[in-house]
What does this fold into?
Amino acid sequence: MTTGSSHIDLQAAAKDIMRQYGFEPDFPPAVQQQLAQLRANPPALTPGGDVRDLRKLLWSSIDNDTSRDLDQIEFAERLPNGDVKVLVGIADLDAFIPKQSAIDQHAAKATTTVYAGVRNFPMLPEELSTGKTSLLENQDRLSVVTEFVVDNDGHVKSSEVYRALVRNQAQLQYNSVGAWLEGTAAAPPKVAASADMQNQLRLQDEAAQKLKTQRYENGALNLQTDELRPLVQNEQVIDVVNQQKNHATDLIEDFMIAANGVVARMLEKVSSLRRIVKQPERWDRIVQLAAIHGEKLPVAPDSKALNDFLIKRKTADPDHFADLSLAVIKLIGPGEYVLERPGDPAPGHFGLAVQDYTHSTAPNRRFPDIVTQRLLKAVLAGRSAPYSDDELSAIAANCTDRENAAKKVEREMSKRMAAAAMEKRIGTLFDAIVTGVTPHGTFVRIQQPRVEGLLAQGQQGLDVGDKVRVKLIRTDVQHGYIDFARL
It folds into this structure.
């Protein structure tokens, strides 16, 4: 039975859900006043002093097809000894948004852009995040550059951070660049038109692959996280499709992880924010999942042993690897932001197998990255820290809370959009995996499309990671309900 209607106003629903989880979906008048002041007195886009002029480098960005809030651009150079020097340019938000200004206060409350499927709720006014502070093609922009050298074994040998004026020479997309790098499609037009750009991207890919290999050797987890994206036509969701990772998404991920590590190490002598993922709360269940597949994991959490198991399963059963990845991610548990003082033992990031990790590469979309940028610029300029330990501790707690709330908004909207897309498939049979067992019910995700719903019938005796065959029995777009029955 289908109840509700896919013709509900999903835009209005998104706003209501934002408010339900404590967000302010609209900007206050004081933000508009600050924007007017910025229009009248924009920061100077001129090199000099501590700002280098790097506009002539062959910078490029790679992001989603529809992204306009571009946080980072990349450039690579082969050194005479064969090493690769990588430059990651990050939008300089601090130059536009003083601490405690109206825009900063709004961003500090929201802490993140919320991607609600039918629309985005930006942390910053779009006049900034998709305009003046976005690293758009053929525009001069202020940036904070993280530079590091990658050797043949994928180690980061040396690093430096500095301010620069930059210019994005090519705004590229994940899907088209990824397919070209993997050899499954022709180069996209901007890449095909320039042999230098082709060489540049191949060099970046080479360095990124070496960084990834080194991380995996250290125990970083090889996980596949496909994202669900709605297909919207005339403001109605007509289907949902899987957004899969590829060489281009991996390239950016590997560079961002390396850049964030460089920044974290630069901030070791001052108090700063760290992004951590603790050791898994349900390691015993991960051990059980491995045993089901004939593999033995240590009794104590061990990221290297877990990654060896994941790589084996990816090779043995690539079609179901995303399901195994999802189960492992759920069992590891969420990340959080914490204050780290100088000399504190680094708690680390279990999934990335790194001890030094912060968020610094997405200031248009995440408030912790703006805070980290201010801390970094203070260190570079030899100034005292712009935040006290108490401030940083409060920011860390609020960022963790708001990130969790944003995920709930996105999940609520994803459920409604998925329900709208699945309305016409009542009675269809699917292969599924159990993704959650809670006091509120047992939840499963079907394989194609990767839609999640409640197992309303036959849930007894199941746990996360179990595979089941289910039938879609009900959808309710108004509430985002998708109910399955176990066969």
Remarks:
- The chain is about 35% helix and 25% strand.
- Residues 389-422 form the longest helix (34 residues).
- The CA atoms of residues 187 and 436 lie 41 Å apart.
- The two ends are 17 Å apart (CA to CA).
